[in-house]
Amino acid sequence: MAGEPSPDWTAAEVIEHLKSLADARNVAGMGRYGINVDNALGISNTVLRPIARAISRNHARAGALWRSGIREARMLALFTEEPKKVTADQARAMAAQFNSWEIVDHSADLFRSAGLIDELIPEFAADEREFVRRAAFAMIVSGTIHLKKRPDSEVLEWLPLIEAHATDSRNFVRKAVNWALRQIGKRSLACHAPALALAGKLAASPNKTERWIGADATRELRAEKTLQRLAAKAARVKS
Predict the structure, then answer these.
(1) DSSP reduced 3-state for 7
(2) What per-residue confidence (pLDDT) applies to 2?
(3) How many CB atoms within 10 Å of residue 223?
(4) Using an 8 Å Cβ cutoff, are 205 and 195 in contact?
(5) Which residue, 138, 145, 97, 91, is CA-closest to 115?
(6) Which stretches of the chain are DSSP H helices?
(7) pLDDT digits (tens, 9 = 90+) for 149-188
(8) pLDDT tens, 51-61?
(9) Distance in angstroms (rounded) separating the CA atoms of residues 146 and 128
(10) How many alpha carbons lie under 13 Å from residue 215 in its C-beta half-sphere?
């Protein structure tokens, strides 16, 4: 296939281009980072991002790329989807196919951009599937970081979900729960104290997973660098 990637390309043309860039040497490296490589071509996200910009957003094509099941095509689907056209039912269908933390975390950003997180976070957190539950906490992270106009009081409403699922010892869940707690605590001074209090409570738990989540979050939230950043952010807000 000749030419550079363009918005006119079909999903089939995009996939053909991706296959021409396949690098088997990179697949093993991706696997070492816990990425599911069962259907991977070994193309890094630094290569995929410019392709995504070149082909632009297209809802129908994104759906076709997702359905291919190819790791790189799915990443491009997430990068080029039109958030306003993504529905909760589409998100649920995608979640049923989650098999890698990488896909989960980028999907969380898409679902946040689509305005779906308030509906999906409690639903996905209650789901027993490991990657679906991870998606709930990845959405909390995405919302905490990117929804800057959301009141801190609403962000703090996610803390009970963190506490409720802090005993889930599965690797991709416990790391996401910990990640969400740390991000809430680093959002603002108003969020810091409640998040640190929960971290301390978990750190004192007899449950091994809760202790790990709490101790790790406590360490970061008490770090001088974190406190300085929060103080500087508060000063900027006041000025």
Answers:
(1) coil
(2) 56
(3) 12
(4) no
(5) 91
(6) 11-20, 24-32, 45-55, 59-67, 71-80, 88-95, 101-113, 117-126, 130-146, 152-155, 159-164, 171-185, 189-203, 208-221, 224-238
(7) 999 999 999 999 999 999 999 999 999 999 999 999 999 9
(8) 999 999 999 99
(9) 27
(10) 9
